[in-house]
Specification:
With 111 residues, the protein is α+β, with helices and mostly antiparallel strands. It has one domain: Ribosomal protein S7/S5 (Ribosomal Protein S7, Orthogonal Bundle). The protein is 58% helix and 13% strand. The protein contains 4 helices and 2 strands, in the order ααββαα. Strands 1-2 form a two-stranded antiparallel ribbon.
Length: 111
C-alpha cells in the first residue's frame, strides 16, 4: 500500500470532483462532463521529442503521440496544475479544479 501525500483518499477526491462539476454547471449552464472532455481535448499535446543516436551524438526528433498517451498526459498535467495552484492557498481545491477545467475548455491560460 502506498504511503505519503495523495495516496488513497478516494471519497475525498470524488467529493472534490462533484463540487467542481456543480460549479462548472452553475457558471456555464453546460454539461460538466462534456466540458471536461472538451478541456482534455484542447490541452492534450500533439507532438513530443525523442532522442535518437549513440552516446556521443544525440539528435532530437519530433514524433506524434498516441491517442491514449495524449489523454493521459493531458489529465496528468491538469492534475499537477490544480495541485500546484491550491497548495498553500486559501482557495479550495474544487475552485482550483473548476478554474483549470474552464481555462482549458476556453483555450485560455490562467496567467
Amino acid at each position: 500500500m502506498l504511503q505519503g501525500r495523495n495516496s488513497g483518499k478516494k471519497i475525498k477526491t470524488i467529493n472534490i470532483v462533484k463540487k467542481s462539476f456543480s460549479l462548472i454547471n452553475k457558471k456555464t449552464n453546460l454539461n460538466p462532463i462534456q466540458v471536461l472532455v472538451s478541456a482534455v481535448e484542447n490541452c492534450s499535446p500533439i507532438e513530443d521529442s525523442l532522442l535518437l543516436g549513440q552516446k556521443i551524438s544525440n539528435k532530437r526528433v519530433s514524433v506524434d503521440i498516441s491517442p491514449y498517451r495524449r489523454i493521459s498526459q493531458a489529465i496528468y498535467m491538469m492534475a499537477i496544475g490544480v495541485k500546484k495552484s491550491s497548495f498553500k492557498s486559501e482557495k479550495p481545491i474544487s475552485d482550483c479544479l473548476t478554474e483549470e477545467i474552464l481555462n482549458a475548455y476556453k483555450n485560455s491560460s490562467s496567467r
